Amino acid sequence: MAKEVIVSAIQASGNVHIGNYIGAIQQFVKLQDKYQGYFFIADLHALTEPQDPEKLRKQILDSAALYMACGLDPKEAVIFIQSQVPEHTELGWILNTITPLGELERMTQFKDKSKKRKNILAGLLNYPTLMAADILLYDADLVPVGKDQSQHLEFTRTVARKFNSKFGVTFKEPRALLKKEGALIMGLDNPSNKMAKSAQSPNNYIAILDEPNEIQRKIKIAVTDSGKEIKYDPVKKPAISNLLIIYSAMSGKSIKNLESKFKEKTYAEFKSSLADLLVEKLSPIQKEYKRLIENKGELLKVLNNGKEQAQKVARTTMLDVRKKIGLLCE
Ligand code: AMP
Ligand code: TRP
């Protein structure tokens, strides 16, 4: 039987952090054997925030290298760059033409991001239609994402249904695959907001490429809660609970196990152990990342190969779509 398909991505917005790792990339790596995976770098989505062209180019390649350094294997999964498969934008446009404005205006991510900005760009509003296209092109069964993206997944299902009922069954309705714990890692400087690449302060996140002393420093100054017990209680102890989730995801130990391990310990001791753990787990990833970036030719070859494999599928889907909606296909 053919393997089920999973599709997912991270934006090429730099500073890939442990929230992305725990909420997304770690899952991709676990799933890549069992499923046919399509994992790409969403560079077009990154354009919905202002980007410096030189920096963006570097971020795209860096993110691809990080995918592989974290364990994604081009022999198992198709790894590529979104903008190199233009069918994504083509289908995104077509989905825009059947999407009511109100549905896009209601999206939490759009509301949050546009609150922070004076000039609201149309690209930010249309972000979910491009994301739906990313997924529907490959007939995805499952989409592993962090909790912050579940509304976009629901939107993808809605737009697929709408297209199918208008033009005949074309798309599969994909399901989100959320991790139970660690689906949303919160900021180290403010546990009521998610850890985010776009955070104002770099103290909000641990980037996968942070140097050991940077990791130690950021964990040391991470916000904690009142009291002194190391206990999982997201309501009363949001900061410590967040650190426990991170510890658990990075070590593979259960939260219960960690609570007893740190029973008699202080916040400072717990934090110091967490910082050591992060340094230990991230350093092999950083080493492999350096090797890949220094062998740019090899990296570009993988991405080119991924592009070709992805495009084969994307072209077939688009031909079907073009025919169904009445575009000239001769
Ligand atoms: P992005 O940083 O927006 O490109 O997100 C890439 C992937 O990481 C998506 O699957 C997100 O759901 C996930 N992600 C982003 N931020 C977090 C976070 N703070 N906690 C858990 N997952 C996250
Ligand atoms: N919007 C996602 C995020 O910010 C990234 C993304 C773009 C994505 N296209 C996708 C995730 C398709 C899953 C499937 O996290």
From TrEMBL:
Keyword Secreted: no
Reactions listed under catalytic activity: tRNA(Trp) + L-tryptophan + ATP = L-tryptophyl-tRNA(Trp) + AMP + diphosphate + H(+)
Positions contributing to L-tryptophan binding: 134
Biological processes, Gene Ontology terms: tryptophanyl-tRNA aminoacylation
EC top class, as a word: ligase
InterPro entries, alphabetized: aa-tRNA-synth_Ic, Rossmann-like_a/b/a_fold, Trp-tRNA-ligase, Trp-tRNA-ligase_bac-type, Trp-tRNA_synthetase
Positions with a binding annotation for ATP: 11-13, 19-20, 146-148, 185
Localization annotation: Cytoplasm
Superkingdom of the source species: Bacteria
Entry EC no(s): 6.1.1.2
Gene Ontology molecular-function annotations: ATP binding; tryptophan-tRNA ligase activity
Motif segment ('HIGH' region): 12-20
Keywords, alphabetical: Aminoacyl-tRNA synthetase, ATP-binding, Cytoplasm, Ligase, Nucleotide-binding, Protein biosynthesis
Subunit structure: Homodimer.
HAMAP family linked to this entry: Trp_tRNA_synth_B
Entry's family note: Belongs to the class-I aminoacyl-tRNA synthetase family.
Protein's name according to its UniProt entry: Tryptophan--tRNA ligase
Gene for this chain: trpS
